[in-house]
Task: structure prediction
Amino acid sequence: GDGVTFTADADATVYCQIRYASGASADETFYPMIRLASIEDDTYEPYAKTNQQLTKDSVDWESNSALGAKNFLHTNGSQTTRGVLFECDENGVFTVTRQTADSNHAYYNNGRFTLKPGTYIFSNGYNSIPSGIQATYLYNYTDSAYFTNCNNGPKTFTITEEKELAFNIEVQSSQSPNDVKIYPMIRLASDNDATYQPYAKTNLELTEESQITDITSSVTDSSLSYTSYTYCLSKNGIVELNYVVSTALTADTNTVVGTLPSGYIPYKKIYTSLRINGIPSGYAMIETDGTITFHPDNANQYNGIHLTFIAYQ
Result:
């Protein structure tokens, strides 16, 4: 465990364990860490704060930047306007295609978002406007006025007070873009890398996605006398599972103790430690069809598991 280098397969599952021999006594501090071997600095780096902690500490743009959220321009999904499809993917990249003719200009408006005081770079991913697109610009709702465009390359601008803006794409009636890509971005001017950075969700959005949206608890299963379980499902498919069987099970034997409902099953088979009052007492398996199997070392009551995994959606 001291500087060991290993190569893991794409689907490998690894565990970090700290083991003491029976009867051993020690007062030690451990600093467990797994990182890419390409990082050659051998100093220990403490864990980064979670999104939720960062949100509680501060919700300003600098905190978002610390998470790698270089793109502050929020998108509002795909729209079809005046015969033009403005299709936005999860990274905030637009594909613009005319589907039908129309005598009016087509506009995409992403809805209002707020920028705090600071100096920013606004760009569409090009040094000139792509063919088939009339304009890519910002509108200032705070002052009810046109703000700035980036038709001829990235634009740097400074605001001294909080502003409510909107990002717009304009296509004239005479233009017929076909799968034209737009890479809109607003970021701090201190991020001077000129390349496009995909849209990254804010701390608040990430925290909201991790909130529990469905809880089922304390369910009795008559076939096993009593089984208590809870599952917590977040919007991004992360399941926290607690599952305890009060019935004494046969030692060294696989026993199916239940099945997870649809939406809560893991995307691949899971092996995990079976425990009694926190002490390892065998192992458990969760199949990709949701079947939960316990294999206890001893014929004791209250075998249970507690784990977090990604659900198959």
